[in-house]
Each structure stands twice: as structure tokens, then as C-alpha cells.
Amino acid sequence: GNLAADLGFVATGGAIAGQGSVTVTGGRYLNFPQGIAFRDIEADIGVNRDRLQIRRFSARARGNGEVSASGGVRVDRELTLPIDINVVARSARVLDRRDMRATLSSDLRLSGAVFGGMALAGTATVERAEIDLDAEDRSGPDIADIDVREINRPGGAPDDEARQPAAGPGPPMALGDPVGGPEAGVAAGAVPQMALAIRVDAPQAVFVRGRGLDVEMGGSLEIAGTLGQPRILGALQLRRGTFSGIGRRLDFPRGSVTFPAPDRLDPQIDFAAGTRIESGSVEIAITGRPSAPRV
After folding, report:
1. Residue 284 Cα distances to 33, 101, 137, 210, 242, angstroms
2. What is the maximal distance between C-alpha atoms in the chain?
3. Helices (H), strands (E): how many in the chain?
4. Which of 9, 154, 166, 240 is 20 to 30 A distant from 231 in Cα terms?
5. Exposed, middle or buried, 251 (CB in 10 Å: 0-12/13-18/19+)?
6. Taking 90 as the threshold, does the pLDDT of residue 155 lie above it?
7. Sign for the pseudo-dihedral over CA of 96, 100, 104, 107
């Protein structure tokens, strides 16, 4: 995007005062591993003495959902940077991976101090989500790593030492990883602490599909802990569901989706169905991770 700044700062007696503005137009943010994309980012941030105020912030998510923000940050003498920002999402597709997709609306508040402990709290409602058990089967062949030789790299090693393999896709990003993944080079202790208290309601339209499974889930979750060590509490329970794949259709009497891994968006599924046939009974269980379910 395009960034324009017109700023001036004066430091007197340990206090910092500024005047001016920062604007962003036509911005984009992409996080391919997590399927997060925002476009048309527009921002207008005003600076008045010791305050940075978000006069306008908006962005479009995939699916034409919208995200907006308001509030600001104060530059105090101790440089703890007290913060109070409200973030609102409306029908925003915040997750768009091969195996998981989610569209939600939310009202969140970020408060506290950047270098004194922050808290992110509020509510979110999942309007539609889907876990695709067949995603890995459709992912196509792996792409081989290719050696890359960098020549004339400023400050780099000689050509014969600069040959190194291209970075392949890393592991799924943990919830507490800094932007760029766990190897981004930011020490864990340097990441400001942020307490989490977010209620996520998903009354319906959370679908688990693939491998003969077609179910709809619903429920509520609590995201607690901290950004570095989050905890996802609660579960999604079966609303309706069927299994087709053994020459007949079975109805599921029970099923759940839980999040036992405290630091990763990596759900566990557990569905069971059974029926009687002339020669006895048939029982079907589908468990495990969506990316590698067991039937």
C-alpha cells in the first residue's frame, strides 16, 4: 500500500510531544499459511501532543467482510504506551485454509499498556465455518525444494558459499507465534504480554464434511490465557449428521469438535454412528485431526 506521514516531535523534560498525521491507502495484508487476507486497507492516524488517535481505519476481508478500528495510544513519560482500541468485524472471513474456513462478526477491545500488559476481550459470533476432511487429498503433489544460488548479494558470502536450499513451507503457525512464524527471529520475551478473554458463539452452520461425513455443529468456546499461551475452552456439539460410504447412510447420534492443543488452532473430531443389519451391526467412528482423520 501507500503510506504518507507528516509528523513532528519535540522532547522536553522527559516528555515527548508530536503533531501531524499518518495515512495508509490501498494497503494489503497477506498470511498465506493461515489463509488470512485483508485488502483495501485505509487508515488515518492523527498525532496530537502525547496521543496517537485512530481517526479512521477500515479493511476488507475475503468474502467482502469488513473490519474497522477506533481508539488510540498515549505516549507517557514511562513509555509504557497506554492503549485503548476497539476492533469491529462484520461478516469477515478471517480464516481461509484448505482444511478450515471461518466467517465471523466480532466486537473486541484492546486495552492496557503496550509495555505494561495488555488485554484483548470481547465477543465473536461465527456465522459460518467449515472443516474439510478431504483437503489433504486435493492438495496435489508436494513441490520439491530447489537450490537457489544468490550472486552479487550485498554483504553476502562468496558465491560458492551462498548456495542454500529455498525455504519450504513451515509448520502450521501456532496461535502465539509472532508474525512470520516461530522462526521470525523475535525472542519470546520481547513479545508484549496480552491476556485473552474472548467468547466465541457458534450456534449453527459449523460444518464438518468429507470422508463420507456431513455434519453440522454448534456451541460456544472461550479463548483464555495469553497470546503466548492461549487456551481454547469448550466444545462444539453435534446438531445433525450423516455418514455415507458403506453402501448405506448412517445417522450420527453423537459427535464433538474440541481443541485440546492449547497453542494451536488444531481441532480434534470425534464422531460415532451405528446401525443394525441382517448379519449383525455396523459401527463407524471418525476421530483425529481434520488434516489426518481416522475412520
Report:
1. 32, 26, 21, 14, 11
2. 89
3. 0, 18
4. 240
5. exposed
6. no
7. negative
Separation CA 155–CA 75 (nearest Å):
37
As given in the structure block, the three cell numbers for residue 182 are 516461530
Contact between 151 and 162 (Cβ < 8 Å): yes
Pairing of β 117-132 and β 194-210: parallel
pLDDT of 295:
75
The Cα 282–Cα 295 span in angstroms is: 13
Give the closest residue to 6 by CA, choosing from 40, 48, 42.
Answer: 48
- Sequence length of the chain is 295
Give the residue among 107, 109, 24 at the shortest CA–CA distance from 67. 107
User: Which candidate, 63, 56, 108, 59, places its Cα nearest to that of 85?
Assistant: 108
C-alpha cell at 268: 480434534
Q: What global pTM score does this model have? A: 0.71
**Are the C-beta atoms of 24 and 43 separated by less than 8 Å?**
yes
